[in-house]
Write a structure and sequence with these properties.
- By secondary structure, the protein is α+β, with helices and mostly antiparallel strands.
- It contains 9 helices and 4 strands; from the N terminus they run βαβαββααααααα.
- The protein has a 4-stranded mixed beta sheet with strand order 2-1-3-4.
- The model has no long low-confidence stretch (mean pLDDT 95).
Length: 202
């Protein structure tokens, strides 16, 4: 299998962390591309008509895309138990929260990197950060007991979301007023799978 990817994408990082956690790394070749919303790499467009990454190209099967589809498929293949039936809806909800944070954070990055300065709209950027801030507050208030539990896909997704905030929006200071989440991430980010997939500035 091939994972169509970019090393800086938090959505791709989710999949790469799962591959390491489940021992599937040797079954998937990561193909890193330079693709943007304005200039879609042809290989990315071929794998996913939306042109988005990640996409998982399978031999003898349809290519899968959307990180949540890919991680669910790979976890099922590995028998990794990262989507446990006993708390499946909680896992999916917290994973969706992390995905929403990533979406908003990536849009903020795109606004700064791909729109001319005179066309950037500050209230829109702040609205995206507002989504992230509300999600962070909700996790701090209601989800810490879940994050304290056994590893599942929502932990990986949240860890990758927080890592992306550090990587692209560190000046926003997401840790302020969220000591429990800060402490959890300080520990989670030291996992080998997280350390090996940490993005490097580009």
């Amino acid at each position: 299998m091939q994972l169509i990817a970019s090393p800086l994408s938090p959505f791709v990082r989710k999949v790469r962390v799962l591959l390491l956690e489940t021992g599937l790394g040797d079954q998937v070749t990561v193909v890193n591309l330079a693709t943007t919303p304005l200039e879609t790499d042809p290989q990315a467009a071929s794998a996913n008509p939306l042109g988005k990454i990640p996409a998982l190209v399978r031999e003898g099967g349809a290519t899968l895309y959307d990180s949540r589809v890919i991680t669910r498929y790979l976890d099922d293949m590995a028998g990794g138990g990262l989507y446990p039936q006993t708390r499946l809806w909680e896992v999916l909800t917290l994973e969706a929260t992390a995905e929403g944070m990533m979406d908003a954070a990536v849009l903020m990055t795109y606004e700064a990197r791909f729109r001319p300065e005179e066309m950037q709209y500050a209230p829109w950027v702040e609205a995206q950060w507002g989504k992230i801030a509300r999600a962070l507050d909700a996790v701090e208030a209601r989800w810490m007991s879940h994050l304290a539990g056994p590893l599942d896909m929502s932990h990986i997704a949240m860890g990758c979301a927080l890592g992306y905030l550090d990587f692209r929006h560190e000046a926003r200071g997401w840790r302020a007023g969220r000591p429990a989440l800060e402490a959890w991430y300080a520990g989670f980010s030291t996992r080998e799978s997280m350390a090996l997939t940490a993005p490097e500035a580009a």
